[in-house]
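Let us practice reading a record.
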Amino acid sequence: MKQGRGRRSCFHPMSSLLSCLLLFFFCLLGSAHAYKNYTVGDSLGWFDNTEKSNVNYQKWADTKQFTLGDFLIFNTDTNHSVVQTYNFTTYKECDYDDAQDKDTTQWSASDPSNTQTHPVTVAIPLMKEGKTYFFSGDYDGDQCRSGQHFQINVTYGEGLPKSLKAPEDAPSPAGAVSGDDDSAPDTIVPANFNHPKDEESDDDDKASDKQNSTSFSVSVSAQLHVVLLGTLLFFL
């Protein structure tokens, strides 16, 4: 008795390879980075463990990927400060008194002597690649030692946007906060805003960004066509 012929499979090695190439192409397009705003601590805000017992800013930061041009948004009050440093010793000691101006910036300052506090939102752009440290330096570092600190690693991504390359356009640190409305830092923004520098960029910048994005897509598409054509010729 003759055995029945096996069912012919419609699977073909070339079709599988082409599918993989297409998948790689779409993943590459989807990997284009857009500048992001990260609200530090999410809904918990920027406070120490004595006020928010369940905050863990390092755990929060470890789940994110930070690149140049991103913003960190600190929702806090005038009883807490935001200090940014590139100096690990300054960060480890929770003390910026002896820090150098070039490696440490106090973006907002509190006034512990003032019993009345006010909400403050501070937006800080990520301007330098590598390790960056944040902490609150108030009460001789007690807030920092009580959990109000974290470190991140900033990668290049797409690089700094034009709006952050000019020193006069970049947000500047705040002076000492005395507790009144005029003392709030000039980088205050709503917690749900989009990239603040994108909103302020002029039409030329927007046109340039759009052109760059289009050029990237066209370039990748052209490279994909070359790869696909070479693959087809290989199997013919």
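A brief commentary: The chain is about 30% helix and 15% strand.
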